[in-house]
Amino acid sequence: MFSIPTFLDSFGPLLWAARYTLLVSGLGIALGLVIGALICAAALSRRPAWRRLAALWVSFLRGVPLLVQLLLMFYLLPVIGINVPAIAAAVITVGICASAYIAEIWRGAIGALPPGQAEAAAAIGMAPRDIWTRIVLPQAVVMSLPALVNELILLVKASSLVSVVGILEVTRASQAQAATTFRPLEVYLAAACIYLLINLCLAGVGRYLEHRMAV
Amino acid sequence: MGRTAAVEIRRVDKFYGEFQALKQIDLTIPPGKVTCLIGPSGSGKSTLLRCINFLEEYDAGEIRIDGELIGYDAPGRKMPARRLRQMRRSIGMVFQQFNLWPHMTAQENVAEGLIRVRGLRKADAAARAAEALRKVGLADKMSSHPARLSGGQQQRVAIARAIAMEPRLMLFDEPTSALDPELVGEVLNVMKTLAAEGMTMAVVTHEMGFAAHVADQVGFMEAGELVAVDSPDVVLRAPSDPRILAFLRTYHERNAF
Amino acid sequence: MGRTAAVEIRRVDKFYGEFQALKQIDLTIPPGKVTCLIGPSGSGKSTLLRCINFLEEYDAGEIRIDGELIGYDAPGRKMPARRLRQMRRSIGMVFQQFNLWPHMTAQENVAEGLIRVRGLRKADAAARAAEALRKVGLADKMSSHPARLSGGQQQRVAIARAIAMEPRLMLFDEPTSALDPELVGEVLNVMKTLAAEGMTMAVVTHEMGFAAHVADQVGFMEAGELVAVDSPDVVLRAPSDPRILAFLRTYHERNAF
Amino acid sequence: MDAGLLQQYGPMLLRGFGITVFCWLAGTVLGMALGLLVALIQRYGPRPLRWLLQVYIEVIRGTPFLVQLFVLYYGGPLIGLRLDALPAGLLGLTVYGSPYFAEIFRSGFNAVPAGQIEAARAIGMTETVIVRRILLPLGLVSALPALVNFSIILTKETVILSIITVPELMYQVQRMSTETFRYLEANLVLALFFWGLVETISRAGRRLETRITRHLIERG
Amino acid sequence: DQLDDIKADGKIVTATDMHYAPFDMLNNGTYEGMTKDLFDEVAKELGVEPVYQDIPWTAELPGLEVGKFDIVIAPVTITPERLERYTFTPPIADATVSLVKAAGNDELQKPQDIAGKTVGVQQGTAQFRQLQSYGEELGGVTVKEYGTTDEAYADLAAGRLDAVAGSLPNLTYLVKNRPETFALFEPAQFGQPTFFAWVLRKEEASESLARAIEDAIATMTEDGRIRAIQEKWLGGYTELPLTATSD
Ligand SMILES: Nc1ncnc2c1ncn2[C@@H]1O[C@H](COP(=O)(O)OP(=O)(O)OP(=O)(O)O)[C@@H](O)[C@H]1O
Ligand SMILES: Nc1ncnc2c1ncn2[C@@H]1O[C@H](COP(=O)(O)OP(=O)(O)OP(=O)(O)O)[C@@H](O)[C@H]1O
Ligand SMILES: [Mg+2]
Ligand SMILES: [Mg+2]
């Protein structure tokens, strides 16, 4: 019934494809965190224009499926004369999409911070950038770590969508493998193991940080 | 420490929605002097203090630090954030609820402003923070986080944090509420030294003895109004206003033992 | 109000990691009496109070409320949560940092325990909460959330919240730190009434006058040790221990004005 | 999109959208409930159970929904578990969402200041009451945006239900595009429907957020 | 002109969904299959280098339309509707719809036996249309649509389906790989003869390219290369028409 050799044999090609999963999600995460912080800052800014921009950003990127965003990036940008290599398009799209979710997570955590702490910093004339990076974000990041790790894990899995622009990552490789062996169950389980491995690492880092940064 | 600062408060109103927390406040805080604010709970003392560094936006009137209007460029038009920041750099504040940063140790709490605002190098800031903490008797708690400090220890970190910045104007909101009498004495001495060095101070306090001993002038607030401002001799030792008399009566009864 | 309660504390130790916050504390809090705890900042007063209702687990010794050991069934074995809860229902506490529930109004803060723990109906609880808030002078702030209250107002809500529960034993951790002298006098009166009605009270305070006037016995703590326990006449008015003498000196100097 | 196309595929697409919304709503509500349960057991339960739930969280959270659904639907019959597409889809969605919700609740709980829970414990409130009256309302303040976030992500996970032949929106859109080659229109329809759904969810979330934080974001 | 551009570049950019055995497969990340063997030869005839890209089926035709690649070399069934919208090369394989069942299912022997049964098929394919009309002929067949054939096969193995309809080459390859699970009907085929071919944009600039490929395939049919490739992958040879038509 269940073919263990197929299951084991799948790991070779899938692990090879995991390079791209790691590359796209890794860079996507990095980009998402940076842009997410900026968008979150904009969302909490005093200036209505910034706030509107952030709201629009979040609304668009959460509203339109990542698949569609990728297709837009890859198939529509060339129409207006911008051509990006597949891997760059994938990383940028994934990062930008993640930023919207990350910004919302941080916004929530910041909402739960006692306002007195930012006040104490503002009262001595600290620049907003410093208040942000030294007082607000460190605490918000710790507080939101579980939700953030959630999001990053989702991002690793969502990176499978980049196959539409021709990148052979784990999910795509497993589909290919399933189609040659006609044993999708075995192959998909192998793929699940690889995702699990990556995500366990992420969750582990999250737990570790949570532990270390807890005060 | 630079030149000292003076504060002029003119006809300031402050509303929270319908509720008027400050009513036409007029007060001059002379440079290099200690001004104490006393008055019943909820009378607007904290609100007034917070208006001085514009943490709270006042709705009418003017507050000038060394002649410079704080918060507004012109009536109703806020000043650029950059200028406000600049002005705040010479103003220190100790909050009623301390507002320590929980993710930093006592020492880091004090050093942070020195590094980010005064631009000190890390090592110098750490040394100065240690020095300030020693002054308030916390040499052995420098690497504790606020959650592991007692109430009085937290309050002293807050005081050290403000003092280390060497502001020209210092706003204290009940800086000794969580301190034992001995420490109150010590903080009082620290403040006397600072005053002697020319720092301008505005202190909200419930410790009449503290006010009587350290203040150059005392303001009495009630229900959003500044009822009286004068030397402690007048306001505390020989008050004429019946509200102040009532306010002080229980105090004297209780503290003579 | 039910039968009054007595607390017996025997050889209690408390460690935070390496740091010993309480050292072999021995103290009897007699029923229907007011026991004040004074001492320098960081000496372990709050910690001791928090051990009494087992918010802090003590590491050695025994604490008995009316003869019943709190927290443990036997040395090292914790009591069932249910029994602990039962015991806590007759113990009230006013926290040094108030710990009000920010999502509830002042009135809701007070009524919550009455409904959930005492089992009162909503309307009755609201009425009793209003009554308690009136007692501490907050009739006009009943529907304000804590974030909109001044420091002293918050503290009074915390006091009202504890008093409304009519516990047999009350633990006050600096219940007047944010209050003005007039209010301190009022709270003192409230406490005197409660004591007269037979409530047992343990009060941590920095207000020596308060302790001198209201306490039946005063304990002086230093560095985790209970240095002296006796009547206020002995501890405050005629102390022999040099540490207590030093502690009180600045106080008297300052408060006579 | 021309009128003929709309006439031909409109009803089908609408039905698909209805099923999508139903699956999402049921999956979110049930997943949130299960997640809350998991988070509470993690906080109060006995150690072995907590450990077990940790494994549950990591495994379910760490593997793709597609695989879970595939194993449940196509692998289940191998061990005698035979479900129809819709029940399988709902079960899958609920289980899939629960660890994410559990973690969000956990982080919300962690953000509640210890003192406010102590104040409740000190008067002898039961933990159930503390959870209901203190922990949840205060935990929700910081958790709400993350909850809304994940609910929105779940809307998109519903498209995966198409692989087990649940006739939801994606299934219908794919059908339309393979039959008519109107890929752009098909994707546009998909995007529009999802955008509408997501926008509704985030608006509702914002409204709830302002309601529960109104009293908290004043001075400390 | 597209052909000129390709020649100038020296390479032709293609797209195919590399999981459609035995046509397109990824073996440890290396592309192989019948399509590749065929197109390698075609590219040789054109005198250019082939560039192979793995693009999911759903993104192939849209990508072709916006010019992301020159040609879709995934085997696409020729249908009248598609002929209206795209230019097809001559057929490259037989696509006639066939049926597969679970091994050991003796109840089903010939295609007519599916009357009243549940049959799976890939969504939106030409095979789907043929299955549907065949079902009507037989007086009722429950047709279940799947996103990819993999899921249909999986559901057949899981016992929810009685049969799966697909193109003969695919099903042959499936049964060859998992004889213990799947078996072909006897005969397997039931529908109109249909064919797989490759797809180009329907525009003037593509016409010369289409003709060049047509010529290449004709040459390859003549010199027996097509036959060799078919035998290698399908285990037999079917003669194919030399122009793209659908009856
Ligand atoms: N955000 C707010 N919204 C509404 N009312 C407020 C707000 N903040 C403060 N108040 C009210 O303004 C009044 C003045 O408050 P303030 O904190 O200045 O009092 P205070 O004199 O410092 O009192 P205390 O000695 O108790 O600290 C109080 O009655 C308080 O209830
Ligand atoms: N969680 C903790 N971890 C480590 N040390 C702690 C912790 N909590 C308190 N301490 C230490 O225990 C000592 C006693 O603290 P406690 O809060 O009981 O002091 P206190 O007498 O109430 O002081 P204060 O008058 O300033 O409130 C202090 O030195 C404090 O730093
Ligand atoms: Mg105040
Ligand atoms: Mg204390």
Task: Write structural notes for this entry.
By secondary structure, chain A is mainly α. Chain A is 81% helix and 0% strand. Chain A has a domain at 18-166: MetI-like (MetI-like fold), CATH 1.10.3720.10. Chain A has helices at residues 4-43, 48-63, 66-76, 86-111, 115-123, 128-158, 170-181, 184-213. Chain B is an alpha/beta fold and 257 residues long. In chain B, strand 9, helix 6 (181-196) and strand 10 form a beta-alpha-beta unit. Chain B starts with 6 loop residues before the first strand and ends with a helix. With 220 residues, chain D is an all-alpha fold. Chain D is built from eight helices and no strands. In chain D, helix 2 (47-62) crosses helix 4. Classes of the chains: A mainly alpha (215), B alpha/beta (257), D mainly alpha (220), E alpha/beta (247). At the A-D interface, helix 2, helix 3, helix 4, helix 5 and helix 6 of A face helix 2, helix 3, helix 4, helix 6 and helix 8 of D. Bound molecules: adenosine-5'-triphosphate (ATP) (2 copies) and magnesium ion (2 copies). One adenosine-5'-triphosphate sits between chains B (16, 19, 21, 41-47, 96) and C (141, 148-153, 178, 180).
Compute the average pLDDT of chain A. Answer: 86
Distance between the termini of chain E: 30 Å
Named CATH architecture of one domain in chain A: Orthogonal Bundle
Portion in strands of chain A: under 5%
Number of helical elements of chain A: 8
Strand fraction of chain E equals 25-35%
Task: Quickly give the structural class of chain E.
Answer: alpha/beta
Give the low-pLDDT segments of chain E.
none
What is the average per-residue confidence, as pLDDT of chain E, rounded to a whole number? Answer: 87
Write the H/E string of chain A, N to C: HHHHHHHH
Distance N to C terminus of chain A: 52 Å
Q: Could you say what the CATH topology of one domain in chain A is called?
A: MetI-like fold
Number of strands of chain A: 0
Structural class of chain A comes to mainly alpha
What is the CATH level 1 assignment of one domain in chain A?
Mainly Alpha
pLDDT under 50 segments of chain A (min length 5)? none
Radius of gyration of chain A: 20 Å
**The named CATH superfamily of one domain in chain A:** MetI-like
Largest sheet of chain A: none
